[in-house]
Description:
Elements: E1 3-7, H1 11-16, E2 26-30, E3 51-52, E4 55-61, E5 77-85, E6 87-88, H2 89-97, H3 103-106, E7 112-119, E8 130-135, E9 138-144, H4 152-159, E10 170-172, E11 187-192, E12 195-201
Parallel strand pairs: 1-10
Antiparallel strand pairs: 1-2, 3-6, 4-5, 4-10, 5-7, 8-9, 8-11, 11-12
Amino acid sequence: MKIICIGRNYSDHIRELSNVKPSNPVVFLKPDSSIIAKNQNFIIPSFSDDIHHEVELIIKINRVGKHIDKAFSNKYFNEIGLGIDFTARDLQNNLKKDGHPWEKSKAFDNSCLVGDFINKDKFQNLSNIEFCMKKNNQIVQSGNSSEMIWNMDELISYVSQYFTLKIGDLIFTGTPAGVSSVKTGDFLEGFINSDQMFSLKVK
Ligand code: ZN
């Protein structure tokens, strides 16, 4: 399986990192080796002094598809989840400056937390899904799928022009504002509405 991540999909987060709003979705991949095993902690890697949390809604693909028309995107997923795209921001800034790919800062071992999933039928409106992340009991990021620049159907259609989507593939849909560094001892929890979707410690 593969993990397809979308960057810069929320205007408030684009502003906080002083990025430019892209004319098309920014896309990058994480390998399956980046996934944090169930009930494991996040361990800060030795190569970074500035690991950021990025909480994101996740789409789980349930059908093989390529060149999917956005009118049919909703047939390619049944479940929505929540996770964290951990990012070595210091390394990413250096790579960006040099015009290099981001992979080392985004796709390293344990950079991908995949929490629980909810059947999409449980939501009245997929364009109005509220989610948030707490760090040490304080809400640090909150967002709503209504704030996405490209909605889920558009993202599935867009990425399937480049990558054949397969059963079990995940699409991380981008992060809202409020990203910040994590440090040893932090306790992170994610919620969709009031349902807890993940919790983990930073070591
Ligand atoms: Zn992200």
